[in-house]
Amino acid sequence: MKKHSFNFFTIFSIFLILSSCSISSNYYSIDYMEPGKITFPKRITHIAVLNNIHPKDITHQSENLAFTKTTAEDIFNGMISALAETDYFKQITIADTIWAVPDSLILPTDTFKKMKDKIDADLIISLEAVNALDQNIEINYPNPATFYMESINPFIQIYNTEKDVAFIHGKKDTIDITDSFILQLTIPNKNKRKPEDYTLTAGYLIGRSIAKDLTPHWKTESRLSYTDEPPFALANKAVKNNDFDKALLECENIYNNNSKMVYRIKAAYNAAGYAEISDQIELAYEWIQKALTLAQEYYNIDMTSTTTKLKDSNDLYVNCLLYSKLLKQRFENKEILNQQMNRFVIEN
């Protein structure tokens, strides 16, 4: 995979991105690898990809894409670029448009078979539709602003040339394309844009979302860390020195010895985060379960779903609950990720 030299464990780069005047919490950014939704056999190394989107598919219901001058071809090219960036497949062939049948609901099986005779690929992937809808979000505080969001419900057909069978894969996602709006307003002439501006375009952002289902990919998220002092002073110092093993030990000490239940909950929560940074996902999940159990006992809450009322009244409990669900998903995904990355293992 691109981004970093490959390591069969998730590699994290972390840095503080937000620090408030209060000493109660900080946020940090974390990068980790997430598996694709589809797992392909190791023998699949060469794919052919066809753009079978009807030209009107992406614009007839989307003013956002019309404003940013985003075409079906832009989204298809964005998907190809995102697939190529992963280095997951050894070869990607862009199928000639002569094979496209955009007026058909899906590409006919007979067309796949004809393509198979002409293209020596392990898989043929046909991007059939995007189904884009505007889902913009307007806010008034602290200042009026609009976030330009695009809801997509694309589907693709995947044809296995060896088994002579095709299946349809669909997904739903919502993508923030606000950067694309800003780019269109500031540099409307595409010829005057810098190469790095391409990753801000709606075509690339939507195409990348579709490609994520087909390959393992990098994901960036932010994590919360409680920094109340003096209890967390030593842990905070260790974090600043990038010594997360020591930070975890300091949090373990607070969890075991502090008399205040709130600090014990926060310590267990932080310990989960520091374990996750070190790619100890199972240990991270154990710690967040400790935090959640303590929070349930202390606040006498056993809710497993979040509500606005609950968030407003007890954000510590909600944070424990949400992080527990996230880490559970990461733990379940790790086996899938290892299976997908097995193709890079060099066998003796």
Q: Would you give an account of this structure?
A:
The chain is of the alpha+beta class. It has eleven helices and 13 strands. The protein has helices spanning 63-67, 72-86, 109-118, 178-186, 202-211, 233-240, 244-257, 261-277, 281-299, 308-313, 315-340, and strands at residues 15-19, 25-34, 46-51, 91-94, 123-129, 132-134, 137-139, 145-147, 149-152, 155-160, 165-170, 173-176, 217-226. The strands form four sheets. The chain has a five-stranded mixed β-sheet, sandwiched between helices. Strands 1-2-13 form a three-stranded antiparallel β-sheet. The two termini are 22 Å apart.
Instruction: List low-pLDDT spans.
Output: 4-23
Q: Helix count?
A: 11
Strands, total number: 13
Question: Helix amount, in percent?
Answer: 25-40%
Which structural class fits the helix and strand makeup? Answer: alpha+beta
Q: What number is the mean pLDDT?
A: 89
Largest sheet: 5 strands, mixed
Overall, the morphology is globular
Radius of gyration (Å): 23 Å
What share of residues are in beta strands? 15-25%
Please list the strands of the largest sheet in the order they lie side by side.
4-3-5-10-11
What is the helix/strand order?
EEEHHEHEEEEEEEEHHEHHHHHH
Distance between the termini: 22 Å
